[in-house]
Amino acid sequence: MRSSIKIGKISGISIAVHPTWLIAVIFIAWTIASLFERSFASWSTTQYWTGAIVGSLALFASVLVHELAHSIVAQRIGLPVDGITLFIFGGVSQIRGRYSRARDEFWVAFAGPASSLILGALFLLTWTWLRPDRGDPSLLLGIIFYLGFMNIALGVFNLLPGFPLDGGRVLRSAVWALSHNESTATRVAAGVGNVVAWGMIGLGVYRFLDGDTVGGIWMAFIGLFLQSASRGERQAEQVRRAGPHVPLRAAIQRTPQIVEADERVSDVMERVVSRGFQQVVPVIDDGVPVGFFTAGDAARFPVQDWVNLSVGAVIDRQQPYAVQLSENAVDVLDALRARNTRYAMVLDGDDVVGVVGIPGLEAVIRLTTHGADASVGQPPPG
Fold first, then answer.
1. In which residue ranges of the chain is CATH 3.10.580.10 found?
2. Which CATH class is domain 248-369?
3. CA torsion, points 243, 247, 253, 259, in degrees to nearest 10?
């Protein structure tokens, strides 16, 4: 996801945090504090909020374990993992490539909920063993009880057949195994996922009208997120059915000019972009790629300020996503959408040979597959 901040690696898997994660941490901490205040009357306000903050961060650590389970199993069956990102709705594992067998998808999908259920059981067993005979528990035990309950809830929620939730992918793998048809399995799972998403939206509206304002809005937003993701999966499957392999070389902008991060915006706009030579410009800082520059980056500032601004100061600085020239354009399009980024650097071995973006990929896929509907490959509205 764009704007995510990398915080480290685990088992070679890059871990990043999206800014929206902070919203979730605050919301969950507020919810936990309210829960503790209602449940443990003898606790002080300091205990409520200390437990809430620690509990919120620990819950996201549990989400990270959930996503690591997906990623490690994916690596063991030979699928590359670009990383894990924690964001407002939990976490996402950026797994590239396609499953060759239904059982591979099943084990990757099931690994996450299984890890959450195991964690939850361990926390609740610890609570059962250490809980006080009478009175309120200590701060640590209160957090342990909350984590046990929430990990069980996380595991059960993710097993709902709301494609692309884990349960939806488990359903897809089961239908795939029974029908021996991956496309049929995707259509069935996406259809069921759409029903689940609308059910969550309806439940959110009901809770909102019933007085649970924050919880209702949160539930409805999750439903909208799932509904959009399910629609995207159906569109991606249409593209795959229309053309299983589309050469990436047909979509790339060849031999791009690369600029230094300290170059002036005015110079790059005049020399490269405004003359129509190149719309997407890779940017490096001391030889290290740090992002892409477009006219949209410059347009956020008054023209008279361009002479005083460096390219590196106006772009979204992050390690550009890189793909090999030999990869399938359909797979690269899926990967860009999964990462919520518009452009990728194209390599031939270690050499930069071009830049590719979502609009170009969509156009080439439509042209290459001929019979594909004009709407295939378009991102969901909004």
1. 248-369
2. alpha beta
3. 120
